[in-house]
Structure prediction request, 422 residues.
Amino acid sequence: MILDPRRAAVVAIGNELIEGSLADTNSGAIAARLAELGVVAEQFAVLGDDVAQLERAFLGLCHDYAIVVASGGLGPTLDDVTREAAAAAAGVPLELSEEVLAWLRGLYRARNRPMPEANVRQARFPLGAQIMPNSCGTAPGFRLWIGGGMLAVLPGPPREMREMLEQQLIPWIRSTCGEGPAVASTSLNLVGLAESQFADQVGDWMDRRANPRLDVTAHFGVLRAKLRASAATREGAQRLLDERARQLRERFAEHLFSEDEPRLEFALGRLLLERGITLATAESCTGGLVAGRITAVPGISAVYREGWVTYSNEAKIRSLGVDGELIARHGAVSSEVAAAMAQGAARTSGARLALSVTGIAGPDGGTAEKPVGLVHYGVCRDGAVSAHERRFAPLDRESIRQYATHTALELLWRSLRSERGR
Ligand code: ATP
Ligand code: MG
Prediction:
């Protein structure tokens, strides 16, 4: 069976990875780099330093995939067993490379230190393997055919892994798989849309075989739609990409806030700065998170006046001039009080745009009428105030605060977006 040279698997090796003390970042970096060549990583495997398990995994993956890229377990100590496992999977012995051994001894001589005997292990490779030199560490990698698949083993330390990937493996993949299709990609960032609504509106554009291929990920209210087009030439790929991106921009114009920067506060900051509109915030349940996000934007001091954290009723009355009667009548979490907070923030700061947020983050304090996750917002723009209600539930306190913060930024962004050119 001839394997499709554009399908790959990625393996991360190390006990620390399966014990949870280290997160695997190598695999994602490898997959992203392969994708640029048009090679799709369809599977990630994370395995401990166990010869038998690694051998089985190498055999299985090389049976299914033309390219299997592994990282880790090439160290000099006995717990690093990737070399042994690869040799076993290929059914060959390990063989000492005099050349690599001499190079290793040279490395230590240059450091004026004796080479520990343990390092000799790093000069042993499966018989028939192509050795890939390591330009910034002591563990060379290697490539080895196992059945119809090529297993490439890179060192675990990310810097060494990247270097070998770039210098050794990518050129080899290019030369054996041909240039392959050119790939062009871009991302669109959207708000105010659930993943499922997005999926409904794009239909089969999200099909795995579609070209361009469209993927979407969600993070606290932001949808990131990633497009990747492939074609025989770079121009061809770019054309395909541009056309689909244009369709997406049109279809989601109301939701699109940026094509590069996924942080909503940056899109908001840009609008405020472009139009010179001043802003103030008054927060209760988000405790300053909104102000924190806004002040993350460089240069925002030109338009951001001030922010209050008015957690108690007393503070809402004293700092924002909210009527105590209003709070007594409707409660601090109400559209009436949210509106009054926004008006108070606008009045006190003199800002043209003011936002307020007041809600129940839980876990306690909810009632049937006002459940945990209920959040009211006020937006005051040049004296005109509007109130908005959201229900984030059932979620934990931190998630509610995160969503509430994101929605505050979204409301501000929308209020500016809807008045284009004003
Ligand atoms: P060497 O022993 O020569 O440093 P090695 O190939 O044996 O290289 P490992 O012992 O497996 O590499 O890993 C060395 C270090 O590299 C780990 O402690 C960790 O900091 C980092 N590392 C290994 N694998 C990964 C991974 N998948 N993602 C992120 N970091 C990793
Ligand atoms: Mg290790």
In short: The chain has a mean pLDDT of 94. The radius of gyration is 28 Å. Residues 397-417 form the longest helix (21 residues).
